[in-house]
Structure formats: structure tokens, C-alpha cells
């Protein structure tokens, strides 16, 4: 009860200082406010970007490996001419992997044809991506349906003229939502819509099925040359759940070298790409951004801390008479010390709360402008308030200690 009474009294002193010296106090609080705002805003922005990018990476599938011509990541001195001379993954590679792999849960062969028009009667969608894949595409990628279904093994094997379409395409061609069962025109051919993908929205890596048309690979043979590197052929392998990614990758590397008859010592003429490569790079990038944001915010908080300390020294000077009276009436040194220390903490908490309020309001502004859901989690809020308390303790301890050591007689006699 004594502590609560002391806290209440100290907070009232702080509030009284705010009322009587509004400009001075607000200028001093500005540093803490800007510092907390900067640090929490940077952390929230990083968490938001990390979450959005990680959601994009998760679409690639856990324990999935992409056999492609080009690697996803390059070093500063990468020999691009060697990569350029590599052959693209072909259907023979895919068939051999299906026969030989013991670590794969599913394997799919895929191609992509970009920027095509899709028509239904008088409605047209421009800039759609036409993807063709073998049967196991639904097992190597993560997606769901808003309506309809994936194509059956029979449809895949016979090359049936059926497609699954993205949510945006379905909305544009069929405003009434009755896409399944309708025939649309794709690359000059009529095909039947059997499924509509669930809406995913745009992500940071541009991975989305909203404007995609997916058809069986064997049907795409009638439309394009699936062996051409113009259509970015790739093989996607998802490993068995009880095996590590490294085990799957090691087996695939050995099998691909065997399939392509590469002699020992000869470099691989293929790339094994995986989502963890992107995740690891994102972690390094965001760790660096966090450090930079902490440094920038730290300087602001440091300036704010000096401002709070200055206010506390002035407050001690203005209330020297009161301190002398309190001590003459029996107030202990720790009572005086805590009184001014709690006042400093209260002032810093005010600055921290104002900074958090600005961040909170900023999340709505970003949502309205860019339609991005900003992450402001409880961890960042607790960190911001904890930082405010620590700054309050550091900036207030010296003025509070000096106040507690005042001689009561000299304090009463001071002007």
C-alpha cells in the first residue's frame, strides 16, 4: 500500500510538471517518443515483410526441391556463362527420377507460358499465366480450391481438355460465380473449367494462382513444345515427411548426375533450389535491418533520455524546499529517491505510449494506402514499454539519488 501511495503521489507530481511546463516537457518527451516509434515501427515493418515473404515461401512447399537450369541465389563472381550453357530439365529426367527415387513423396514436371489472353464469350482476361503440370502437381505445391476439383489421373494421362483457373480469372469471366463446367478459350482451344483456386492475393514474391490457368501436361503437348526452354520447364520433388531435406537433396544430386551421365569431377549442369535458401537469406537481411533500426531508434532514445534527466534535475531544483520539509518530517532517503525515480519512469512511459500510439495509427494508414496488414504483436509492445521503463530508470537515477542525499536543513533554507 505504501508503494502504491508513493507511485500515485509521484505520478501526480509528474502530471503536475506536465501541466505547468507543457512545452519543456513535450520537447523532452519528443526524443523518447521518436525513439520508441522508430524502433517499434522498424520491428513491425520487418515482422510484416518477413511474414508476407515467408507466406510466399511456404507456397513453395516444405521439403520441396526444384530442379532447374538456373540457381535462385548467385555469388558475386558467379560464372553465368556456365549456367547459360546448361540444358533445361526435360521429360526424360522426370521419368527417370520417378523410376529411381526412393526419397520422393511426389514428383511433378511443369512448364509455364506467360501473358496470355483467356476468353469466355465477350469477357476477356489479359496477362494470364498458363501452367501445365503432371499429375502430382497438387502434391508438390500447396493450394486449395474455392470450388471444383483437381484433374484426375485419367484426365492427366489422356490429356483431357480441362483446366483449373485462378480466382481473379473466374471473377472476371464469370461474375455470377458459375465458372465450373463452363468452356473457356485458352490459346485458341476450348477447354472445360473443372475447378477454381481459392483467392490468395498478391504476395511479395509474386507467387499467386489468382491469374493462373492450370492444365494437364499431356494436353499442353498439343499447344506448345514442352521441351523448349522458353517455357521454363522444371521438376519439383517433395521428399517424404520422415526424411530431412538434406537426404532428399543428396539423393537427387546423385540421381541427376547419373541420369545425365556426368563424370566424377565434372560440375553439376543443374540446380537444386529449395525454399530454405530464400528463408536463410531473408533471416540475414532482416537481422541487419533490425540492427539498423535499433541503432537509429537508440540515438533518438538517448537524446530523449538526456531530456528526461534534464527535466528531473530541474524538478529537483524546483522542489528542494518540499524535499527538505519531507525529510524533516521523517521521510527516508529511499522514499525521496523512489519518488523522483518513479516520476522519471512515468514520464518515459508517457513518451513510449505516445510512440506506440503513433505506430498503431500508422498500421491503419498503411492498410488504407497499400492494403497491407501490418504486424504489431504483443512482443513489440512489451519491448517498447520495457525500453521506456529502462530509459526512465537510467535517466532518473542520478537526479533521484542527488535529491535523496540533500541535507534537510539546507534544503528548507534554499530559495
Secondary structure blueprint with pairings:
Blueprint: H1 2-20, H2 22-59, E1 64-68, H3 80-84, H4 91-100, E2 104-120, E3 123-133, H5 137-140, E4 145-148, H6 153-158, E5 162-165, H7 167-173, E6 183-186, E7 189-197, E8 212-216, H8 217-220, E9 234-239, H9 245-259, E10 271-274, H10 275-318, H11 320-328, H12 333-370, H13 378-404, H14 408-413
Parallel strand pairs: 3-8, 5-7
Antiparallel strand pairs: 1-9, 1-10, 2-3, 2-6, 2-9, 4-7, 5-8, 6-7
Helix pairs in contact: 1-2, 1-12, 2-10, 2-12, 2-13, 4-9, 10-12, 10-13, 12-13
Description:
It is a single chain. The protein is built from 14 helices and ten strands. The protein is of the alpha+beta class and 415 residues long. It has two domains: 189 residues, no CATH class; 183 residues, no CATH class. It has a six-stranded mixed β-barrel. Helix 2 runs antiparallel to helix 10. This is ABC transporter permease. Belongs to the ABC-4 integral membrane protein family.
Apparent shape: elongated
Number of discrete helical segments: 14
Number of domain modules: 2
As a percent range, the share of strand residues is 15-25%
User: How big is the Rg?
Assistant: 32 Å
Low-confidence stretches: none
What pattern of helices and strands is seen along the backbone?
HHEHHEEHEHEHEEEHEHEHHHHH
Question: What is the averaged pLDDT score?
Answer: 83
Lateral arrangement of strands in the main beta sheet: 2-3-8-5-7-6
Class inferred from helices and paired strands:
alpha+beta
Number of strands: 10
Helix content: 55-70%
Amino acid at each position: 500500500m505504501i508503494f502504491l501511495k508513493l507511485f500515485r503521489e509521484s505520478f501526480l507530481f509528474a502530471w503536475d510538471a506536465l501541466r505547468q511546463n507543457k512545452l519543456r516537457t513535450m520537447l523532452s518527451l519528443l526524443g523518447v517518443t521518436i525513439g520508441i516509434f522508430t524502433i517499434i515501427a522498424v520491428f513491425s515493418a520487418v515482422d510484416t515483410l518477413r511474414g508476407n515473404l515467408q507466406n510466399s515461401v511456404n507456397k513453395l512447399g516444405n521439403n520441396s526441391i526444384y530442379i532447374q537450369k538456373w540457381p535462385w541465389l548467385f555469388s558475386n563472381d558467379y560464372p553465368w556463362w556456365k549456367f547459360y550453357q546448361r540444358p533445361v530439365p526435360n521429360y526424360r529426367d522426370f521419368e527417370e527420377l520417378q523410376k529411381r527415387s526412393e526419397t520422393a513423396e511426389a514428383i511433378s514436371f511443369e512448364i509455364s507460358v506467360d501473358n496470355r489472353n483467356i476468353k469466355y464469350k465477350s469477357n476477356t482476361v489479359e496477362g494470364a499465366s498458363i501452367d501445365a503440370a503432371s499429375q502430382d502437381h497438387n502434391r508438390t505445391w500447396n493450394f486449395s480450391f474455392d470450388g471444383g476439383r483437381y484433374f484426375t489421373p485419367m484426365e492427366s494421362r489422356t490429356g483431357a481438355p480441362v483446366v483449373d483457373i485462378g480466382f481473379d480469372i473466374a471473377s472476371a469471366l464469370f461474375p455470377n460465380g458459375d465458372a465450373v463446367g463452363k468452356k473457356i478459350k485458352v490459346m485458341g482451344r476450348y477447354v472445360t473449367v473443372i475447378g477454381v483456386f481459392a483467392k490468395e492475393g498478391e504476395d511479395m514474391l509474386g507467387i499467386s494462382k489468382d491469374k493462373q490457368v492450370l492444365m494437364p501436361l499431356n494436353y499442353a503437348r498439343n499447344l506448345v513444345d514442352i521441351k523448349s526452354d522458353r517455357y521454363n520447364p522444371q521438376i519439383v520433388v517433395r521428399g517424404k515427411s520422415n526424411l530431412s531435406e538434406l537426404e532428399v537433396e543428396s539423393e537427387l544430386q546423385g540421381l541427376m548426375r547419373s541420369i545425365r551421365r556426368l563424370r566424377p569431377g565434372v560440375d553439376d549442369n543443374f540446380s537444386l533450389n529449395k525454399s530454405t535458401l530464400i528463408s536463410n537469406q531473408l533471416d540475414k537481411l532482416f537481422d541487419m535491418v533490425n540492427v539498423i533500426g535499433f541503432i537509429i531508434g537508440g540515438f533518438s532514445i538517448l537524446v530523449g533520455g538526456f531530456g528526461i534527466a534534464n527535466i528531473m534535475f530541474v524538478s529537483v531544483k524546483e522542489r528542494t524546499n518540499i524535499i527538505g520539509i519531507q525529510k524533516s518530517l521523517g521521510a527516508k532517503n529511499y522514499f525521496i529517491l523512489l519518488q523522483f525515480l518513479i516520476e522519471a519512469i512515468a514520464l518515459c512511459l508517457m513518451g513510449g505510449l505516445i510512440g506506440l500510439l503513433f505506430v498503431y495509427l500508422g498500421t491503419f494508414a498503411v492498410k488504407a494506402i497499400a492494403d497491407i496488414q501490418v504486424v504489431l504483436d504483443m512482443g513489440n509492445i512489451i519491448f517498447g514499454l520495457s525500453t521506456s521503463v529502462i530509459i526512465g530508470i537510467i535517466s532518473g537515477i542520478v537526479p533521484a539519488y542527488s535529491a535523496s542525499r540533500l541535507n534537510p536543513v539546507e534544503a528548507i533554507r534554499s530559495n
